[in-house]
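A favour, since you know our structure tokens better than I do. What I am after is a single protein written out in full by you. Could you add the entry underneath, on a fresh line?


***
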Amino acid sequence: MTQEGKPKTPKHSQGGTGRSCGLCLFIFLLLAGASAVAVCLIYRPRKPRFAVVGAAIYQLNATSQPIISTSMQFTIVTRNPNRRVSIFYDKLQASVSYRNQQITPTMDLPPLYQEAKSTVALTPLLGSGTVPASAEVVNGLMMDEAYGVVALRVVLLGKLRWKAGAIKTVKYGVYVKCDVWVDLKKAAVGPVPLLGAPPCKVDI
């Protein structure tokens, strides 16, 4: 039985709740976008700079079969040129390529925080075991090793975001390409001279 005269409890529609959640999400995204724009307009963050300053070759052998054995280490220096903006890196990966073909497995690097006007050095050890390669790459590497000079490209991929005070931007993809020429004429295992290492190209 129903009691007459008792006020009915209002029922909230699911549609109203969904609209409220959508509105909250829209406001959150709007504020995040406004924060990123504020950082860009007020502080004008600049791209980080990268350079390879050292190399060590422990194994770089090509055989008659389409296989390359690689083990090498590079010292990569990154500079944050911003005075009041720090940089967060995550999902960083490093690899080495030769003639546009990757010759080391991709290596995951730990997250990195870089303060304003600071310099940080990375020393990833890249390569292990054998890597399949095309005949063109194998033949080219054998010829370059016989000559004593090998051109390599160190590649970094990942995400970064800038931070100014309590404001952080959204994450941006970063792609770093470092072309280096290493001297293998002495056929030594370990540190090798860099014959050329211009500043790396950084795309964001």
Summary: The chain has a mean pLDDT of 85.
